[in-house]
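Dear support,

We are seeing what looks like truncated structure output for some complexes. This example has three components. We would appreciate it if you could run it in full and send us the complete token output so we can diff it against ours.
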Amino acid sequence: MKIAIPVDNQNLESSVCPSFGRAPYFLFYNTDTKENYYLDNSAVASQGGAGIRAAQVIADHGVKALLTPRCGENAEEVLRKSEVLIYKSIPGTVQENIDAFVAEQLVLLSDFHPGFHGHEK
Amino acid sequence: MKSKGVRIAILSGKGGTGKTLVSVNLASIAEKSIYIDCDVEEPNGHLFFKPEKVQEEVITVKIPVINDSMCNGCRRCVDFCKFNALAFIKNKPYVFEEVCHSCGGCMLSCSENAIGEQEKPIGKVLRGFSGSVSVHTGMMNTGEASGIPIIKSLLNDSIINEELPIFVDCPPGSACIVMESIKDADYCILVTEPTIFGVHNLKMVYDLVRLFKKPHGVVLNKCLDGENPAEMFCIENNIPILGRIPFDNELGRLNSDAKIASRESNRFRSLFTSLLETVKKEVRHETTVNPQR
Amino acid sequence: MKQLLILSGKGGTGKTTVASAFIKLSSAKVYADCDVDAPNLHLIMAQNTEPKRTDYFGMAIAEIDPDKCIECGLCKENCRFDAISNENGFKVEPFACEGCGVCEAFCPANAVSLKSAVAGELMLYVDSNTIFSTAQLKMGSGTSGKLVTEVKNQTKTTANPDTRIAIIDGSPGIGCPVIASLSGVDMVLIIAEPSISGISDMERIIKTSEKFRTKIGVCINKFDTNLANAEKIEKFCKEEGLLFTGRIPFDPLAVCAINNGQTIVDVDCPSGRAIREVFSNAMELLFKERDGVEA
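Here is the complete output from our reference environment:
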């Protein structure tokens, strides 16, 4: 299964990024084959709607589950409608989160914050 | 629309210095006048005027609507949007209204005529009367990001009688909503308080009015005994001081009970009458020396 | 690290006065000024070092190349923001432009391009112990929630993970910058003014804050300027189930302290004494565990 995680650095020992929409990179990881790749998050440069754009990228890559500590309402809507499940990540490295996910120890994220309205005017 | 009556904007940089106190009382003293509250996030003037015969107009912005049956899934609209207000979900575009800036770009970029528009309310304009003062209040709905369309509606109002003086109560700060509020002003009154915060923020609006080449003067509010850093700033920079309002317990109490001080007390009636005279003199002088129109 | 945000709705109620006192009382090692439009905290919290300065680029603004422009007027016709004038050739009004890109996309002569412009400056003061993050929005820029987010992010990237508390001085209003400052904070302390306008504004900011489901506390500043209104506010808090953290009297000595660049707890004065109780109640709520959910 293909999953995605917002990460601070491009390696499996990296911490999970506290922000989804404005994470510097996304890790895409196949839990069956262990193949993985990183992508720069284009949403970082956005004035607003970063969560929406980030969610769009995740959905476009055919991801089935996203592991993240937090997620906004707008991003959640895009992901839910695109049938991507959102799991609450745990403190620790990316590798630790992947292992926890595979062991079915992660819970679904249930608390979504309102949009940041980080755009101008 | 050019108004023959003078348009005076009252601004401050810092919040809570007395913009509403000054604008409400000047409009009240002028009697036949127009008061416009452009502080659409936290409008307060109407609490003082308690206007009657209030008419409400809902202000809307245009939000795109996707006609799914005509959409061919080309994604051009999603890719065009600079505000990330469109997402492509299950092969169809989806609109996020709260992030949309109503630029119309998605509609223009669609080759299939699959995007139309609908109106979304973001706030309202209330128009009423308090005596012979025409009171216009802009109110933005909580959660909305920008009040600019409401301010535009308030200031472009064709209902405004072009011969009466207009007092525009501006939002605090110096960001674009303030610029929108002073755009067509003939004169700007900067209200400040005798604290270092007051001066620091006075400098910002002072820069702003000079950038927009607006004639301006300062009202020193909440004056206490002793050194007044705001007064010193005005003297150092040759900024006309239009008047001084003392820090006064009775004024504070009247104000906190949302009473119009110049209507309640002779003392304040004189104070604001004399302030209005000074302002009128300054405006006449400025518009003769530096005609803007 | 717990984040406490100070808001008010109405301007001039005393956010910075309270924030600076809280910073002193809590010995907070991390603090930020999110009132990027009119920052004031640095005037009280004097810094010993030069800050690290970073340009903040706002949204891209359209620019018309007069050499390429064929004056067809399509840009002006399609601009929803009245941002293009044609008095002396077609020009973009930078303060009105929202960077939507419609003019760029529809110019038949490729004369329009969107260019990033500096819209403000971020400042980060770091010394051996403390981090102070602030910014100044350039005049006329869009009220930028994004700059506020960057002010907060600056504290996270450099803060020592053992830091207990961060105090954030917020901005007036209920719009973009306030919403951006609200995200991710643990508690909001609302400074209320006992006036009709103050109460009206307080209700609007409470409504805005409740959407974020943070803990909310309220305190009344200059309460003795109108006792009847002060009571109204206390009653309101009880009815709405909001923590009432205390009341601070109007105090001319506070003005003196502030004008001397000091906090109200640096001198002995009535407001300084009163704020200690407000602080203690606020801290209790901030560090209280929420049932069943991590604190």
